[in-house]
Amino acid sequence: MVRIDFNRLRFLVIDDNAHMRRMLRTLLHGFGAREVYEAEDGAAGLEAFTHYIPDIIITDWAMPIFDGLELAQMIRQPGANANPYVAIIMLTGHSEKKRVTAARDAGVTEFLAKPISAKGLYQRIVNVVANPRPFIKTKTYFGPDRRRNVNAAYVGPERRKGGKADTIRQTALLEKVRSPG
Amino acid sequence: MAPHKNTAAIATYGDHEVIKPENKLRKYVSDTPFVPGEDDPVTRAEMALAALSSEFGAMMDEECQRLDKERHAVMANGFTKTNKEGLFHAAHDIKGQAATFGYPAVASAADSLCRLIEYTPDSSRIPAKLVDQHVDAVRAIYREYSRSDAQDLASMLTVRLREVTDEFLIYENRNRPDILEQITGAPAVVPE
Known about the structure:
- The structure holds two protein chains of two kinds.
- Chain A is an alpha/beta fold.
- Chain A has a single domain (6-144), classed as Rossmann fold (3-Layer(aba) Sandwich), CATH 3.40.50.2300.
- Chain A has six helices and eight strands, in the order E-E-H-E-H-E-H-E-H-E-H-E-E-H.
- In chain A, the strands form two sheets. In chain A, strands 3-2-4-5-6 form a five-stranded parallel beta sheet, sandwiched between helices. In chain A, strands 7-8 form a two-stranded antiparallel ribbon.
- In chain A, a hairpin with a 4-residue loop joins strand 7 (135-137) and strand 8 (142-144).
- Chain B is mainly alpha-helical.
- Chain B contains seven helices and three strands; from the N terminus they run E-E-E-H-H-H-H-H-H-H.
- A two-stranded antiparallel ribbon of chain B has the order 1-2.
- In chain B, strand 1 (8-12) and strand 2 form a beta hairpin.
- The chains are: A alpha/beta, B mainly alpha.
- At the A-B interface, strand 1, helix 1, helix 4, helix 5 and strand 7 of A face strand 2, strand 3, helix 1, helix 2 and helix 3 of B.
């Protein structure tokens, strides 16, 4: 298990449910965190983000005023705030595939489904602290690299276009099937 | 508080940039190994949460009361935007928290209510009786949780609620193939 110096990390917990905020604070203090700030909706969360400059944000999805998805999109604006690279962990009861994809496309760093567990939360925190992914900036996206793994066997179009260093040659599936051996 | 200064290595390609921000958090990873007998942070956090568990019953009670209050708001004034969101959020919070509070069998009935609200294109067509049955089921399962046969009863109740709800949703979404796929399709995928 990776050991993390939690007492030097600054957390911001954003959830409209007071019970959930309390459980998260209890878990984070249990890990050893000292600085845990709270906000109860997306608007207050954005203000707290600007004020406290947390290292890690843990946010719910469904909240009043604006939700966790909109919050992530507002934070992932390069140049618009102090830390557009901040780690965002989305903790939510929504666990359908389309929701996970939407969260990823909004720039969420890690996704954690409720019910919450100490182990699951710890793993997500370790991921963002010890193994952060690079950021990708395109015309339509700014956020953590959505490709978590490099798949050498990938067959399909290379959707990122670039110079030589970024070109990945792909073999059509039909050619692969036809080629001997 | 003073903002961090961001320095980042940027590689520019044809239609995108790959940015490697300075990892300011890396310095918080310690190389000191855990010694035998030392409580790891996950165990400590679980113990801290266990210490809170004496309050879980009261918390669950509050969530059930909130659900009931939102139900009454819907019954009194219909599915206005505010009432709809209120009922959905109350059910959604129970779905997410019931297991942590020690009442995992309550979550399925709350989930079924969330699906009913989320996937019905015209909320005014949601049968009031079906809303009542869901809310009453959530509250009854919670209330009778100490019974020895509570799990079996909860399972029977929620399976039936889900069947009736799915039947309704499939009919209401008969012209929306993408939604039908979500209702009847693949289960949730969540990384562990």
